[in-house]
Amino acid sequence: MSRHVSKIGDPSPLKRLDEPQISKKIRLEIEVDENMSDNSPDRNRRANFSNVNGVNRNLNIHSVKPTTKKLIIKNFKSEPKLPDDYNETTWKKLSSAVIAIQQSKPNEYLLEELYQAVGNMCSHKMASELYKNLFELIDAHVRSNIEKFKTETMDRLLFLKKMNDTWQSHCNQMIMIRGIFLCLDRTYVLQNPNISSIWDMGLDLFRKYFMLHTLVQTRVVEGLLMLIEQERQGDKVDRILLKSLLRMLTDLQIYNKAFEQKFLQSTERLYAAEGQRLMQELEVPEFLAHVDKRIHEENERVLHYLDSSTKYQLIHTVEKQLLSEHINNILQKGLDNLLEENRLHDLSLLYQLFSRVKNGLQELCHAFNAFIKKQGRTIVIDPEKDKTMVQELLDFKDAMDNIVASCFKKNEMFSNSLKEAFEHFINQRTNKPAELIAKFVDSKLRAGNKEATEEELERLLDKIMVLFRFIHGKDVFEAFYKKDLAKRLLVGKSASVDAEKSMLSKLKQECGGGFTSKLEGMFKDMELSKDINVAFKQHLNINTPELMPLDMTVNILTMGYWPTYLPMDVTLPAQMVKFQDIFKEFYLSKHNGRKLQWQPTLGHCVLKARFKAGQKELVVSLFQTLVILLFNESDEHGFEYIKAATNIEDGELRRTLQSLACGKARVLNKIPKGREIEDNDKFKFNNDFVNKLFRIKINQIQMKETTEEQKATEERVFQDRQYQIDAAIVRIMKMRKTLSHNLLISELLGQLKFPVKPSDLKKRIESLIDRDYMERDKDNSNQYNYVA
Known about the structure:
mainly alpha, 11 strands, WH-like_DNA-bd_sf, ubl conjugation, cytoplasm
């Protein structure tokens, strides 16, 4: 196995390098196993031993011991020395190269030669002097460049461009100089942490003289502010120039001190004046659009040329001067109009902008709440709007809900404020909204309401329930709703049983089973009445087949479930009386001990009538039936006779005759003609009556609910409330035995579900004391004791 020894010396000398090589020389002796050479195509391949004499080609490789590499390093016998004038001659070359770079002239030396020279000086401990010389050379150049600007009288834009050119040249020059003196940066500078790198040295010197000459600095900053202000006024400016000079200030680490503070001050002055002026000149939507545009523009400036650290303070300044300072003015001047006109885009922008400033959304929420209370009060308080109140409330609620959802991003604070405002204004007028909501539900659930499909009706009922939740006097709603529901069920005017039960289910879910127990009882009565009528007809067919066929349907009403109706005795035809007696006997035979009281006010009939034009069927009320049947005896009757024959109450009779003689379907003729019914009027059967329909419904003229009837309903509600108050007082006192007046009032207000005044509670307490349910304490008149 042969050995090879190779020697490694210095690299070949550079061209035009006159001085001798100065690198330390060493001699290396390397002993290498030829078969284990790294030059082998595959170091992991099995060695080839075919050329070794006396060795079997099939010899196992593991039996051969590998040879080791041997590396011998020896010093040269003597170290080369530099010429005595090497420092001066080399710096002369280097300084001429630096000056050529600074003056943008061609360099007479190769960069490799200059780089090698710097390396040699650093290796021979000349780095300190080299750094000092380089510092002085750059210092002089930077100083002369900056001082030139002291005497410049050109306009600001040209001044900025020239300064930018100087800065760009300085940066390019420092990059080239650092390339030559890279060895100095990597050795001497790294070994001395207190010394700046060559690049930082250039920045430090530029910053030093830039800040030293305040006039130059001031002109640059003012020029930058001038360009930015021109851009804000709509002029087109050189953004590249702005970006370069602002980057210069950032690199020099004087951006904040020299520029940012002045920039923010000028921004504040500009937008403070602009905000005051535009708030007077523009309408709120235009003002909001302008503010949004300004914020977008300032964000664009940060993106294009301002330092990112300026963004927060800059945007905050714009928001403060254009929004925070004018929040109340914006809300007072324009919010009501935006809400009334349903300007969703402008409201969305208002919410978005106000969310940027402190307390902006809170102020907006307060103003939103105040608007709803003011607008809602105008709907509820005005008696002239009673007919349209509920529909207006529904529309108003829909509009406000849409604004909260689409403009205010379903903010919970605004949703709660909306609910609070509705609950506040809807109870400003005691009891009336509850009554009108009940009547509105009646109008929608009554047969003949073809305005909506079942799905639309269900959605409408859900919306009505939202209004219902806001009402404090829910018992008032129950009273009127029960009265109207009774009419719908008894007269058969309910549009849909499913819709009725759906509404009942919603009320039960909202107020509990106690609230709807009587209403559910009404439905139960109607179901039981169907079964009773089927059994009664079977009874008639079996027991009284000789009677004239009369299809009579009777509804059995449990008195506690239904509204209270005033009993009215009228004179019925003998045939009807006969059927009444038979039904009474039939019913009492099955339900012993019960008492039946007939209510003719809610009855209705179908009559067959013959006219010249042919036979017709008339769908009429029981009172109308009694009047029409009289004309089977004679074609003409006077008012007094009809009144005596039917025994119908005077006012009810007049309305009945109006419906028959003065309505659309006039089966009677009034003599003399006129709208009002007088005592001396006569009525004649209208044999010439014509109508294209076979079955004609003659509507009873509904007596408008008089003030007395409304008061009667309210009085019943008030009476029910008194019973509830009495029961609550007794319940509390029975549990507590002894209680002070204030604590009793407090507990009552917590338990009662309807609005009540403390003075009313005091009256009920006095009433219970008079009835010996409780007594005043003998020693403390402000204390009550329960009397067992």
